[in-house]
Design a protein that fits this description.
Blueprint: E1 8-13, E2 19-23, E3 26-30, E4 35-38, E5 53-58, E6 64-68, E7 73-76, E8 83-85, H1 87-93, E9 97-103, E10 106-111, E11 116-120, E12 125-128, E13 142-147, E14 153-157, E15 160-165, E16 168-172, H2 174-177, E17 182-187, E18 193-197, E19 200-205, E20 210-213, E21 226-229, E22 235-238
Antiparallel strand pairs: 1-2, 2-3, 3-4, 5-6, 6-7, 7-8, 9-10, 10-11, 11-12, 13-14, 14-15, 15-16, 17-18, 18-19, 19-20, 21-22
């Protein structure tokens, strides 16, 4: 139907209602009438350097940020003519950008082993590294970043779940999740957090960080489990197996 690939890794919506898709074969925009696609064009210097797009974020000025699998962070020009590159961010934050998020004027950049980079509107970079200190991450692989309505950022790493709140890191449910690869996080309108790891879906009650294993599907399909609450309070679960 016009998408460059059936494999869609992330979706985002801008203020005009356009839907953007990061796919395994380029970036796509759907405006309700047509689909526009950006892909690598040999000989065009500012085209996508490669087509496999891992992550996507749209900031409060409707600028489209793209995380690539091998060429770092990119940003689509406002007129759609090509992409800007950010060599310093790529040098410090890595060439594989697995997760992106925008919150309170800051772009969050997570990748494969380098930890987190927080980039403000002036281009200043703040790095959060890996280690055993309270202000460090338990693991440098950042698979998912999910802001919630209360201004907290939930961070899924290769070794557990971390919450960013009031400019501090907090490791969450270490006894149960400390050795888990966290690959998907969903946030309800009422503040509940759903955490997908290899083989298990968890529900987190934020007030006291009580963690409950969700009965139902088990196994590898839960790596990509996404949860959505409808207006009746029913929860819908999408997995890699339906």
């Amino acid at each position: 139907d016009g998408l460059p690939s059936r494999q869609v890794l992330q979706l985002a919506k801008d203020s005009k209602g356009n839907i953007w898709a990061a796919t395994a074969d380029g970036l796509a925009r759907m405006d309700g009438t047509e689909i526009r696609v950006w892909q690598h064009q040999p000989g065009q210097r500012d085209s996508l350097p490669l087509n496999y797009i891992e992550s996507l974020a749209i900031d409060d000025e409707d600028r489209v940020w793209v995380g690539s699998n091998g060429m770092g962070l990119l940003r689509l020009r406002a007129d759609g003519s090509g992409f800007e590159v950010f060599p310093e961010i790529t040098l410090r934050c890595g060439r594989q950008v697995w997760s992106l998020a925008w919150m309170d004027g800051v772009l969050w950049v997570g990748g494969n082993g380098e930890g987190l980079c927080l980039v403000d509107k002036q281009g200043r970079i703040r790095q959060i590294g890996v280690g055993g200190q309270p202000d460090q991450l338990p693991d440098g692989q950042i698979y998912v970043l999910r802001p919630d309505p209360r201004g907290r950022m939930w961070i899924g790493t290769g070794a557990g779940l971390v919450r960013w709140e009031n400019d501090q890191l907090h490791r969450v449910a270490q006894a149960q999740l400390g050795n888990s690869v966290i690959t998907r996080i969903s946030v309800d309108s009422d503040g509940r957090v759903w955490v997908g790891s290899h083989g298990q879906l968890w529900q987190l009650r934020v007030a006291d960080e009580a963690l409950t294993a969700v009965n139902g599907p088990q196994g590898e399909p839960l790596r990509s489990a996404a949860v959505l609450q409808d207006n009746d309070g029913t929860h819908w679960l999408g997995t890699a197996a339906g």
